[in-house]
Amino acid sequence: MRKTAYVAAAIVVVGLLAILWIKGGASEDEAPIIVKNGSIEIETTDGVWTDGEDAWVNETTGKHNHKELWVKVTSSTGTCRGVGKPIRIQYSKSNDRAVFTTDGSFLGRHKTRVGPETAITYVDRKHLRAGTAGDGGHIAAVQARSVTCRLEAESANVEISICSSATAKACQ
User: Fold this and answer.
1) Average pLDDT, the chain
2) pLDDT of residue 23
3) Three-state secondary structure along the chain?
4) How far is 24 from 27, CA to CA, in rounded Å?
5) How many beta carbons lie within 10 A of that of residue 106, not counting itself?
6) End-to-end CA distance of the chain
7) Threshold 0.85, pTM exceeds
8) Over 60: is that where the pLDDT of 9 sits?
9) Residue 11 confidence class, pLDDT cut points 50, 70, 90
10) d(CA 17, CA 13)
11) Cβ-Cβ contacts under 8 Å for 55 (sequence gap 6 or more)
């Protein structure tokens, strides 16, 4: 009887360890999401955007999301970095904005999400857009927790990398 209990306990422990190993990064980290240009053009480099009801979800296969977001903003006027979620990108025209966060449960895979879906246009499987190219607007600010990176209209070559891992080169 005792032997059966030990065997059952060992099977449960091995099963839990397997789940933790799978959840703990047995696969590669998600690639960064790139935001650029005058309007908010959002590009996934290793996944596809799918409809998540209230937000677009970056669907990747065999990739790991660390439940946190890192951001690096580069432009002709300098570089700014932040960590946290959500990450908010504000457009200078209207109230267009993009809000990035992660979502998932302990057993479910965490995914990077961007919303609100009603303000972000689906362009194709790799691209989303908020704002309208050529409308004179620009990305005005990027906020991650208490860090706000402000961008002036004359800032050129704006690129924002949003990463789900601190080790992603694009956000270092």
Assistant:
1) 77
2) 43
3) CHHHHHHHHHHHHHHHHHHHHHHCCCCEECCCEEEECCCEEEEECCCEEEECCCCEEEECCCEECCCCCEEEEEECCEEEEEECCCEEEEECCCCCEEEEEEECCCCCCCEEEEECHHHCEEEECCEEEECCCCCCCCEEEEEECCEEEECCCCCCCCEEEEECCCCCHHHC
4) 8
5) 8
6) 56
7) no
8) no
9) low
10) 6
11) 101, 103, 113, 114, 115, 116, 117
User: What residue type is assigned to position 40 of the chain?
Assistant: I
More confident position, 166 or 61: 166
Checking if the pLDDT of 169 tops 60, the result is yes
> What tens digit of pLDDT does each residue of 117-144 get?
888 889 999 999 887 767 777 888 999 9
Instruction: Give which of 50, 48, 46 is closest to 163, Cα–Cα.
Output: 46
Distance CA 87, CA 46 (A): 20
